Amino acid sequence: LDAWAKSGGGRAAAERAEEILEWMDRLNSSGNMSVKPDTISFNAVIDAWARSGDKRAPQRAEQILDHMDDLCHSGNKDVKPDTYTYNTLINAWAKSGEKGAAARAEHILSVMERRYRDGDNDFKPNTRTFTSVIDAWAKSGEPGAAQRAEHILNTMQSLYESSNDPDIRPNVHTSNAVMNACAFTRIEQDRPEALAIAFRIFDWLSSQKDMDPDAYTFTILLSVCSNLLPKEDRELRFAHAKSLFDKCCAAGYVNDYVLRKLRLTVTEDEYLSLVGYRGEALASNMPPSWVRNARFNQKGKQGRGGGGGGGGGGRGNRR
């Protein structure tokens, strides 16, 4: 099931995962207890739909979760939904691009919060939960998305400060998700506030003793500058881009994504001056100190260096 979920096979892979789950259920009903479907089995199928890219993925994921709830209420506690189930469903909505997906993701979070308050620890929201809801707002392009994303992060921080519970503490991925919501603000009247939010979150992240911006942070903030600062104000764009690039170099997080976004933000001459007029402007040609913390994959190419959402929580498809 997990292999099909992660195969990249789209809708066909998700449907195949469902077929295997149904086959497991038939075998179990005929007396083979070794293949009895459990929460992990169902979570893998929901994950397959979340990764499928299919338009009906979030609705199908919700139907599967509802079926798990029905089975659990009828006495089968082995398929009780948990935090991972709900996180995966929220992720399905975040990736869907459907109108109203962000509000739906936030509603699912509220269901988790209510059930957790009622005493069921299996529904405890965690950092991944909140970050995925923020991601849904970031992808929505809806009015007020950046403000809503910042509000959720502030709620997390307040909950963490009042409880000292590390499971709900915002992390660099949470901050990046909020800044991403700012970078892709589509509503003209929201753009000034989105710009302010992005740098407010960056300042907050930079002030944390045990958290640091990563390569993805700088990539997103350069997107903020490119997308939200007036194109005619070259001086302002250059000042912001130079400040960010200098900090990125000092932190050792320069990669090809950062360079690409930098190039989109400033003029070509300004870009060449910032990278020291080096030949082909690739991260591999930059000083070693600039790229020392940038991640490389097995082929030696650089990755984005961030952007994940932390652990899923609960009983996921990780057997």
Fold topology:
Elements lengths: L1 H4 L4 H20 L9 H14 L4 H17 L9 H14 L4 H17 L9 H14 L4 H19 L8 H12 L7 H17 L7 H14 L5 H18 L4 H10 L2 H7 L13 H4 L28
Helix pairs in contact: 2-3, 3-4, 3-5, 4-5, 5-6, 5-7, 6-7, 7-8, 7-9, 8-9, 9-10, 9-11, 10-11, 11-12, 11-13
Structure description:
This protein is mainly α and 319 residues long. The chain is 63% helix and 0% strand. The chain is built from 15 helices and no strands. The protein has helices at residues 2-5, 10-29, 39-52, 57-73, 83-96, 101-117, 127-140, 145-163, 172-183, 191-207, 215-228, 234-251, 256-265, 268-274, 288-291. Helix 8 (145-163) packs antiparallel against helix 9, helix 10 (191-207) packs antiparallel against helix 11 and helix 11 packs antiparallel against helix 12. The longest helix has 20 residues, at 10-29. Mean pLDDT is 90; it is low at 297-302 and 305-319.
